[in-house]
Specification:
About 0% of the residues lie in helices and about 50% in strands. It has no helices and 28 strands.
Length: about 350
């Protein structure tokens, strides 16, 4: 199998929001992986002695991964690690999203210790601002450079936002006080969660000009984490009478549970409909194992890497080539570390 960890980053220009439908996806012409790969190569991303986590991976060849190392936002390009300089001068930053142009978003503390949403490109970190409140955080970016996240408003609540390259747009709520956006696809559809009237519960939503409640798996609350270009949504929801999270797939107007009777949450879905996340595990030191849902089957990813190679604790994102990033621990180490899984 070829190695995708050997190519430079290429940057593209941001397009205006009106051209969202012109957004392209991955243009990699390599052969796709098997429909549901039966094994993966596990790579622990450097540095090895510091706690880290990978949050997102794009469709470059190789995939550019972002996350955090210790208290710093991080980029991994192949075997090379670099910290993203916190241009806000605060102590902590974290990268949450990266698009196919290599542009990165996340949150970074300013010198007052308050997190602000950032956009990172060409070595420069830009503060995206707020709705008049103190803090904001960016969670996703699509291939047009459109950014989503949440921002405080002057009264102290937080609202989901879309940043279209020049302006931060308030997406509102489902009738409650707070909302947050977690992901955006290349058609401009946005997903997240919002409190409903009375603030007694929160619901997963899709925003495509209006905010639509996606419902639940029977319980009070739900939250949407990601949406692919076909409009399929993943996240987690409570069941009837319960308070635990259960991973769901919302497709064709229906929400269904991915891991019946098992505590779990889904984090990402690619355009092939492959889903990753984490599922409760009694044998894990953290209580969680990374999973992949493919071909109608949920599989513990620990069963798809060589025995003794390490423990996979969480899967945060999956790209179009099937590469998966997340969190794991190497044999004999208590340090939780960023990982990438490459289909074999």
């Amino acid at each position: 199998m070829f190695n995708r960890w050997n190519a430079p980053t290429t940057l593209l220009l941001t397009l205006p929001f009106a051209l969202l439908m012109a957004c392209g996806g991955d243009d990699d012409e390599s052969a796709p992986p098997p429909e549901c790969p039966s094994s993966y190569r596990l790579t622990f991303l450097p540095p090895s002695a510091t706690s880290s986590s990978a949050r997102s991976i794009n469709n470059q060849t190789p995939g550019l991964a972002v996350g955090n190392v210790g208290g710093d936002a991080a980029i991994w390009n192949g075997g090379s690690f670099s910290a993203i300089t916190n241009g806000f001068l605060g102590a902590t930053s974290i990268a949450f999203g990266v698009n196919d142009a290599g542009r990165v978003v996340g949150g970074a503390q300013n010198n007052s210790g308050v997190f602000r949403a950032f956009f990172y490109s060409g070595g420069a970190m830009t503060d995206l601002g707020t709705f008049g409140g103190s803090s904001s955080f960016a969670t996703g970016i699509n291939n047009c450079g459109q950014i989503v996240g949440k921002s405080d408003i002057p009264t102290g609540e937080s609202h989901a936002f879309l940043h279209n390259g020049t302006t931060m747009i308030d997406l509102g709520t489902l009738g409650g006080s707070n909302s947050n956006a977690n992901g955006i696809n290349n058609s401009g559809q946005i997903v997240g969660s919002s409190q409903v009237a009375g603030n007694g519960s929160s619901r997963a939503f899709v925003y495509d000009g209006t905010m639509r409640d996606l419902g639940t798996l029977g319980g009070q609350s739900s939250s949407a984490a990601a949406i692919n270009d076909a409009g399929q949504v993943v996240g987690s929801s409570q069941l009837s009478g319960g308070t635990d999270d259960h991973a769901f797939l919302y497709s064709g107007g229906t929400m269904r549970e991915l891991a019946p009777s098992t505590v779990s949450t889904a984090s990402s879905i690619n355009n092939r409909g492959h889903i990753v996340g984490r599922v409760s595990s009694s044998v894990s030191p953290t209580g969680w194992h990374a999973f992949r849902y493919c071909g109608g089957t949920l599989t513990d990813l620990n069963a798809l890497v060589p025995s003794g190679s390490g423990e996979l604790l969480d899967a945060s994102d999956i790209n179009e080539m099937g590469d998966i990033v997340g969190l794991g621990s190497s044999p004999g180490s208590a340090v939780q570390q960023a990982i990438i899984l490459t289909p074999l």
